[in-house]
Amino acid sequence: MHIVYYTTSKTRCRLFICLLIIFLCAAVLFFVCAHSGAARPAAVQSLPLKGKVIVLDPGHGGYDPGVMKNGIEEKEIVLKIAFKLRDYLQAAGARVVMTRESDRDFLDVPAAGPKKQQDMTNRMQIVNAAGPDLFISLHVNAIGSPIWHGAQVFYKTDCTASKEYAEKIQQELRRVLGNTERQIKPGNYYVLNHADSAAVLVECGFLSHPREAQELCEPAYQSKVAWAVYGGILRSFLPEEAAVE
Ligand SMILES: [Zn+2]
To answer: How far is the centre of ligand 1, averaged over its atoms, from the C-alpha of 163 (Å)?
Structure first.
C-alpha cells in the first residue's frame, strides 16, 4: 500500500507540473498575440488600401491596337501589365475597376461617328461612374527614333493630387526598374482631361527601343513595372514609414 500511495502521489505531482507548463505556455502565447500587432507597421497590420477605389485603363483594345512595332501591339502589353497591377492592388485591399479585361473596344453597336471619339467617351463614362480615388491609364510608346527609352508618368493638368500621385509612381519606376531618369510631366490627353478624379497616364516604355521592346514582352519585366506603379500608389496613400519595400 505504501508503494501504491507513493506512485499515485508522484503521478499527481507530474500531472500538476504538466498542467502548470501548459498554462504558462498558453499565457505567454496570449500575451505575444495580444501585443505583437502594436509593434508592426501599418502596412502589414491590415489591408493598406482598404476602402480605396482605383480604376485601371489598359489603353486601346479591340479595333485599336495602339502603337505597333515588329508585331508587338500596345493593347496586348498594357492589358498584361494591368492584370498584374490589379492583383497587387486587390491584395492590398483596394477595389479595382478595369475598363477592359479582354481585347475589346468601347464602340456603340452599331458604331456611329468617329470611332476614336466614341471609344474614348464610352471609356471615360466607365471611369467616372466608378468614382475612383485614382484613375490610371496604361500605355506604351513608340516613335521614329530607336534611342529613346524609359517609363514616364503624365498627370492631369492643374491637379495637385494627380501631380503628387505621378511623382510617387515615377520615383518608384526609377527605383524599381533602374533604367530611366525620366521626370513627370503634365499631359494633355483626353483621358486625363475628362477624368473627374485624380488621374495619371503611365507610358511604361518604348516599343521603338529594341531592348525595351523585348523587356516589355517579358512577364518578369511586366511584373516589375506593375510593382513599381503599385509601390507609388501605396506610398501616396500611406505615411512614408509605413510603405513597403
Ligand atoms: Zn497608347
So the answer is: 20
In the reported structure, the alpha carbon of residue 206 is separated from the centroid of ligand 1 by a whole-number distance in angstroms of 11
User: Same domain, yes or no, for 11 and 123?
Assistant: no
Supply φ then ψ for residue 54, to 5 degrees.
Answer: -130, 130
| Alpha carbons 111 and 165: distance in angstroms, whole number | 35
**33: containing domain:** 2-39
pLDDT at residue 202, rounded to an integer = 98
Asked whether the beta carbons of 77 and 226 are under 8 A apart, the reply is no
- Sorted by sequence, the CB contacts under 8 Å of residue 116 that are 6+ apart come out as 64
User: In a 3-state reduction of DSSP, which class is residue 161?
Assistant: helix
Instruction: Give φ, ψ of 112 to 5 degrees.
Output: -130, 140
Q: What is the pLDDT of residue 152?
A: 98
Say how many Å lie between the CA of residue 52 and the centre of ligand 1: 26
pLDDT band of residue 8 (cuts 50, 70, 90) is low
Rounded CA separation 38/221 (Å): 36
Q: How many domains does the chain have?
A: 2
Cell of 68: 505597333
CATH classification of the domain holding 144: 3.40.630.40
- CA torsion sign for 164, 91, 215, 135 is negative
Determine the distance separating the centroid of ligand 1 and the alpha carbon of 113, expressed in angstroms: 21
pTM of the complete model: 0.80
**Residues surrounding ion ligand 1 at CB below 5 Å:** 59, 66, 139
Which tens digit of pLDDT belongs to each residue from 60-77?
Answer: 999 999 999 989 999 999
Q: Are residues 85 and 30 part of one domain?
A: no
Mean pLDDT score, 85-101: 98
